[in-house]
Amino acid sequence: MSRATGFLAIVVLLLGLAGAGLLLPAPSARADAQETALPLAVPQPLPSAPHPQLPPPVQDVVQSGVLIVVSKASQRMHVFKDGAHWGSSPVSTGKRGHSTPAGVFPILQKKVYHRSNIYSNAPMPFMQRLTWRGIAIHAGYLPGYPASHGCIRLPRSFAKALFGLTQASRTTVVVTNAPLRSEEGAITLALNAQDPGVPQLQTPGPQLARASDAPAQTIQLAAALSPSEAEAHWLDAVARHPELSGFRKVVVPATIGARKYWRLRASAPGAYAVCSSLKRSGTDCFNVI
Fold first, then answer.
1. Helix and strand tally (H, E) in the chain?
2. Which Pfam families match (predicted)?
3. 137 shares a domain with 69
4. Which of residues 178, 202, 236 is at a domain's end?
């Protein structure tokens, strides 16, 4: 056998042994085994919550969409679709120590069947999530007072119907500490709502920005046949009565019979007194209670 032929035979033999796994060095084998076992031994990090999602502006959903207004003081929910009242229901919000946060919220997630991953796997039928920290609207027991761990409970039939009504891209939920005396008051309150984590829905005038902590009052100046007509009424009213420039203006759609109107309203602390002054000067105005 020549020297070259002998060398080739040795190379073939070594390659065959390596393919059979007989020549793997012990340290490499241990390292491979450790790499394989490592993902099983190290706890995997929990998935992070999705990026914050802003709700659609209240002004937009009042015109075309679903607006849900919840009063913790009144323990009541009012729902509006395309500006018209869709329905109302009693609620049970968070009890002491687990208060439901006030603010403006989107619908982040919807599930017909859901169980709490915080409170003993408690059932939450027709769940509509408002925050990634466990606040949601869902069907549940209503004792007639705040009793939940922060969620907003509804009667099952109402929760089911509401679940079928809402769409995340066209629904905004406003939770307020203030009492609600009427359906119209719910829309006005929502249009005036502000939340530190949400862009302001209306730009306050200089007088309103300097206002004290006194509660805002709302007055109505006109019922127009279109949003542009309501805007023209507002510009004329501010030109004739500069004291209105510090008010927060809102235009609220309303359907009466088969006809749609746009109510021009303005809010600020002390608005009722201003309304009385406007009426004395011949400008139509009335208080919205």
1. 8, 13
2. YkuD
3. yes
4. 178
